[in-house]
Amino acid sequence: MTRARRMWKALEPFHAITYFAPETRQATDALGLKGGWMSYFGCRAAPLGAVGPEFVAAVFYNFHPAMVARSLPDAWTYAPPEQLLAARLTAVDIAVRRLFPDASFDRAAELARRAAELAPIAGRPLAAANASLEWPTDPALALWQATTILRESRGDGHVAALVAAGLSPCQALVTISAAGGPAKEVFRLNRRWSDEEWAEASDDLRDRGLLDASGALTSEGRALREQVEETTDALADQGWRALGDESTAELHDLVYPLSAVLMADGLIPADNPMAMRWD
């Protein structure tokens, strides 16, 4: 496993508290938002401002555009982005205190903030938007914000790799599922591409020689998928290289146990749309 992938595995679950802890939904319900997906799209897109569904579908990449349009721009009529930013931070604060009542976050926050400030943001809209936010003074929240910047920087780079590989949003999901990632049903539930759209994407991949008749990746398909992942890791490693081996390893060792608790306790489902597997 590359350094960049090890760090993604260590940090992603801590960032994902905002999506899976009930406190976020409770906070956005109190503001009038309707349902979990409006909460998700509103909170995650809030750093970008009151943008429309087309922009969000483009930068989030693998969600069905119609799914995004069911939540945006309506979310902004209940709460403007500034209010949702405050709500998500308050929700994370409550959730982290509940999940880790005795933890100290000072050193992890210090290292993670340094890493986030070194992470590449050029050409990475979600990373840049989150990096522009004011840093929380509380160490637990500073750690969460840093992990958010780092995961969005990696995610923006991943989108660039998918675009360069010529994989459409639905094709990206088809190929990662075929490579041993989350099942089609997980993506259908969480990304909302229809059976017909999934089949159309698969047919195109077959025409390109990337899938075989059974829906498995061909050797060319496996090579392309590996290329995407290698490019994603290489782009993300720029920041870790700048932070240095010693500080990167220390941050990993501080946050990995926290993420292990989140995965073991089931806050984040074992078969999740982030393709985060734990062992």
Q: Over all CA atoms, what is the radius of gyration?
A: 18 Å
% residues in beta strands: under 5%
Major β-sheet, in short? none
Give the helix tally. Answer: 16
Shape, per Cα inertia axes = globular
Mean pLDDT: 96
Distance between the termini: 13 Å
Helix content: over 70%
Query: What's the count of strands?
Result: 0
Derived structural class: mainly alpha
Low-confidence stretches: none
- What order do the helices and strands follow? HHHHHHHHHHHHHHHH
How do the strands and helices of this protein lay out in sequence?
Elements (H helix, E strand, L loop, with lengths): L2 H13 L1 H4 L1 H10 L3 H11 L7 H8 L4 H5 L4 H5 L2 H19 L6 H13 L6 H7 L7 H26 L4 H10 L5 H8 L3 H13 L11 H25 L1 H20 L15
Helix pairs in contact: 1-11, 1-16, 3-4, 3-8, 9-11, 9-15, 9-16, 10-11, 11-15
Structure notes:
By secondary structure, the chain is mainly α. It is 71% helix and 0% strand. It has 16 helices and no strands. It starts with a helix and ends in a 15-residue tail after the last helix.
Features:
about 70% helix, mainly alpha, about 280 residues, HTH_67, SalK, about 0% strand
Write a short abstract of this structure.
The chain has 279 residues and is mostly helical. It is built from 16 helices and no strands. The longest helix has 26 residues.
